[in-house]
């Protein structure tokens, strides 16, 4: 509701052409007094100190251009957005079309990242396999083959070797295979 021209003259100071204050319950907007701020504006108190007198008036200030309704002039102070935008928790209004594009890109980037990580895993597995295949002693704790105990495969290594099965009573019933040299005198 706007105050009439006659009421405006009564509210304004005789020395100025502009209204400085409105009656209680009304807001100053475009040199007039209204009951509430229009769409795209928010209410704020302004105070001015003139000649030892404090003068406070309630005016309507413009919202950020992305806000339909707001509680401040910043882009993160929106309380309602236009129909082509969505309001997010942080008070921003984002265009619906832009949000959909970002969501689609996010899904695409996630898929690319998963494929990339899978390929990295496959390549790393192949590299480890190739390195260990070329250098078999890497598999056994990186110790040279001279310090390893040979594993029994069921066949004698040389004609003068024999395989002995031994058990260690302290470690349980674990079998240990050892290769012993048999001299020609023992045969």
UniProtKB/TrEMBL annotation:
Q: Keywords, A to Z?
A: Membrane, Transmembrane, Transmembrane helix
Mark the transmembrane ranges.
108-131
UniProt cross-references to InterPro entries, sorted A to Z: Growth_fac_rcpt_cys_sf (IPR009030)
For whether the record's keyword set contains Membrane, the answer is yes
Tell me the superkingdom of the source: Eukaryota
Question: What protein name is recorded for this chain?
Answer: Furin-like cysteine-rich domain-containing protein
Origin organism is: Oppiella nova
């Amino acid at each position: 509701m706007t105050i009439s021209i006659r009421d405006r003259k009564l509210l304004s100071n005789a020395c100025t052409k502009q209204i400085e204050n409105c009656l209680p319950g009304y807001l100053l907007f475009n040199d007039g007094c209204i009951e509430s701020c229009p769409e795209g504006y928010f209410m704020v108190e302004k105070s001015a100190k003139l000649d030892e007198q404090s003068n406070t008036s309630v005016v309507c200030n413009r919202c950020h251009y992305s806000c339909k309704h707001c509680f401040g002039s910043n882009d993160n102070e929106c309380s309602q957005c236009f129909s082509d935008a969505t309001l997010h928790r942080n008070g921003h209004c984002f265009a619906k079309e832009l949000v959909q594009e970002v969501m689609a890109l996010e899904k695409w980037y996630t898929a690319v990242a998963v494929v990339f990580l899978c390929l990295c895993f496959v390549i790393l597995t192949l590299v480890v396999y190739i390195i260990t295949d070329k250098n078999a002693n890497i598999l056994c704790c990186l110790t040279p083959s001279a310090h390893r105990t040979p594993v029994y495969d069921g066949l004698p290594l040389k004609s003068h070797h024999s395989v002995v099965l031994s058990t260690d009573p302290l470690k349980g019933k674990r079998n240990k295979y050892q290769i012993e040299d048999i001299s020609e005198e023992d045969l």
